[in-house]
Amino acid sequence: MVLEDECDSVFEPQITEEYVDTLFGKVHCIMNGTPRVNRPVILTFHDVGLNHKTCFETLFNHEDMQEIIKHIPVCHVEAPGQHEGAKTLPTAYTYPTMDQLSEALPAVLKHFGLRSVIALGVGAGAYILAKFALNHPDQVDGLVLININPNAEGLIDSVANKITEWTHTLPDTVIAHLFGKEEIQTNHDLIATFRHHITTTMNQSNVSQFFHSYNSRGALEVERPVPEENINFRTLKCSTLLVVGDNSPAVEAVVDCNSKLNPTKTTLLKMADCGGLPQVDQPAKVTEAFKYFIQGMGYMSSAGMTRLRSRTTSSSSISSFDGSRSRSHTNDLQRGRTHSQSTEEKRGRSQTDVSTESFRNMGQSISKTTEVAC
């Protein structure tokens, strides 16, 4: 399916803000644009300590993203009590688990009359959307998961979190969840901005409940299918793009998630010189990857995106975690010259220096399991 329309030079989508009743309480939703029959909607879900503005505003306000949202409406979903200026949740209210929050999403789709979505989530939101895709595969066309952690919290992590709760304020704990140590120590302006958002626009009690729900999550029950073995396995069935900054505290978790997913449908984008929130730190690169991901699914196949096409970007290196697959998948994407081997070759990875045109071609082979470092 190709999504293409004649668009006005000035694009002003209709914005609808509603509270949607679900089995687990009201969720705050913002529909940006008008849903259309037989077309997907971008469905977003934020991370802990954030809302749709602080998590996604930088990305969706970026000039390069305007081409995408002209064609595809966006529905932002906020967890109970996490919207800006939210009142403290009632004492009798039991905060939903991660599984329950994922099961609240069908009510959102029904409310807005959505048949399918391209889901974009960060951290806790990424986990919720992945769970939703596992349980409702017919309603999810594609997944873009930033900083996803597919694992349950271990005993050591649980003890460490308890100690952190005793010795740190909630904003400090959330900041440590969102950003890596190096970023916290060096990017003072960014950290100060998000600390201000957390302390002044978010309800601390509600954030604490959402954080506790996330830390109490179970493992995401997925496993990588074994070739030529006729077994029942549970995995994400849609095309999936995993994104993480190389300075993010979630790097190991995202790499682990990639190792557990279907290799024919998963791409890992590891962004160099990028911190805990790639969509905030490098929105242009995330937009570019998102656009080619959408094109790889068959949408917006001939959309202009002139800024993206004319922008000169630094070369990207593409590698695969499995040596045998690495050669075949790299051949699908390789258009540049062979790059000198990096220290990651110690793990058996092959490196390639790829031109912008080659990265653009990722849209045609997005179903390959690759690691893209850009």
TrEMBL record:
Residues 308-374 are annotated as: Disordered. Gene3D superfamilies: alpha/beta hydrolase. The lineage of its organism: Eukaryota, Metazoa, Chordata, Craniata, Vertebrata. It comes from the Eukaryota. It comes from Scophthalmus maximus. Residues 351-374 have a biased composition (Polar residues). This is Protein NDRG1-like. Belongs to the NDRG family. Pfam families: Ndr. Residues 311-323 have a biased composition (Low complexity).
